[in-house]
């Protein structure tokens, strides 16, 4: 299982790179059923002017279309970053079987770091959870992205002072 989880997480990391290339926070997600991709996504809220265009939501939407069902039974969602409340709620509603994520998100993670939507006893569906898969690689990509963004802002401020 570990080898399979790492394989799909690497796929999610490739999708996260697409987000980076588009100037979005680099988060990628891939939805798998029977070892076959049925949905994938990367963060696109800026480019699509859509606050719900998170990687997970994009993958779930695509999976629903492929299965022609809003219930995504017997699926595993691989995500490079712990999901937020919105995405965790969508996972419960879609009835995915399993979530595998890489980096923890202590500021807004809703799979145990800040909140635990997926494990809340009042939820009518429980999602099996595996965290920390390729966590260092996932976290490094996010750190590198935000470091680059800070450097760009600093350079812009410097250029504005020069003019």
Describe this protein's structure.
The protein has 163 residues and is α/β, with parallel strands linked by helices. Helices cover 46% and strands 18% of the residues. The chain has 5 helices and 5 strands, in the order H-E-E-H-H-E-H-E-E-H. The chain has helices spanning 2-21, 45-48, 55-67, 85-94, 135-162, and strands at residues 28-33, 36-42, 76-81, 98-103, 128-131. Strands 2-1-3-4-5 form a 5-stranded mixed sheet. Helix 4 links the parallel strand 3 and strand 4 (98-103). It is elongated. The termini are far apart. The mean pLDDT is 96.
Briefly summarize what is shown.
The chain contains five helices and five strands, in the order αββααβαββα. It has 163 residues and is an alpha/beta fold. It has a five-stranded mixed sheet with strand order 2-1-3-4-5.
What sort of overall outline do the alpha carbons produce when their principal axes are compared?
Answer: elongated
Which spans of ≥5 residues are poorly predicted at pLDDT below 50? none
- Termini separation comes to 57 Å
Strand content: 15-25%
List the helices and strands in order.
HEEHHEHEEH
Calculate the mean pLDDT score and round it: 96
Report on the biggest sheet: 5 strands, mixed
Helical residues, percent: 40-55%
Labels describing this entry:
single chain, elongated, 163 residues
Write the layout of secondary structure elements.
Blueprint: H1 2-21, E1 28-33, E2 36-42, H2 45-48, H3 55-67, E3 76-81, H4 85-94, E4 98-103, E5 128-131, H5 135-162
Parallel strand pairs: 3-4, 4-5
Antiparallel strand pairs: 1-2, 1-3
């Amino acid at each position: 299982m570990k080898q399979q989880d790492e394989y799909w997480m690497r796929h999610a990391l490739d999708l996260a790179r697409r987000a980076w290339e588009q100037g979005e926070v680099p988060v990628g997600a891939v939805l798998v059923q029977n070892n076959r991709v049925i949905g994938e996504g990367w963060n696109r809220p800026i480019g699509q002017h859509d606050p719900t265009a998170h990687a997970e939501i994009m993958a779930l939407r695509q999976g629903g279309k492929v299965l022609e069902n809003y219930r995504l039974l017997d699926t595993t969602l691989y995500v490079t970053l712990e999901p937020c409340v919105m995405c965790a709620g969508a996972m419960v509603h879609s009835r995915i079987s399993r979530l595998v994520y890489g980096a923890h998100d202590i500021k807004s993670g809703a799979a145990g770091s800040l909140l635990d939507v997926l494990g809340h006893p009042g939820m009518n569906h429980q999602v099996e959870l595996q965290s920390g898969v390729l966590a260092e690689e996932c976290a490094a990509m996010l750190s590198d992205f935000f470091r680059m963004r800070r450097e760009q802002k600093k350079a812009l401020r410097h250029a504005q002072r020069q003019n």
